[in-house]
Amino acid sequence: MRALELLTAALLLVYPLAVWFGLTYLPPGMLAGLLCLLLLLRLVLKRQQLSAMALPLFAGIALCAGSLIAKRQDWLLYYPIVINLTMLGVFGQSLLRGPSMVERLARLGEPDLPDEAIPYLRRLTVLWCLLFVVNGGMAFYTAQFTSLEIWTLYNGLIAYLLMGLLAGGEWLYRTLVLKKGRRKNA
Question: Residue 183 pLDDT > 60, yes or no?
Fold first, then answer.
């Protein structure tokens, strides 16, 4: 069961590449059906843990089923928008209700965070929200106005690189600048 969960997660991670491959090499409608089954399987596997991630699964199923029924393969291009809007909603809501999403994630590794870290983690959550706005906007733009290849390049590579740069850059900043500053003050 765990292997199947990991497989469905990995397949959803490469969704843009799967869409490019399917729209390029598979008969019309086959990809939408396969993706719909994949999302349904993911929903069944995660039914015990459904929360904020239920919305993108239901939206993905609706997009794939609608694509199949309406014979509109372009609808498959809108799933990255749904993912970015969901992440924006989750991170944005945490700013309103607290603690911020990045603080929650940070506390998984360091439960006793110093009070002075909280404003920094809140600003970092805002930065992630901005990235989700940019990625969602670019996902919409590439789905509407560019070729399938450009859509795949942005949503299957560039968007992931931007997220990796933000996460890696923040880690470097925290490791090299913030911890160094704390050592000097100690």
Answer: no
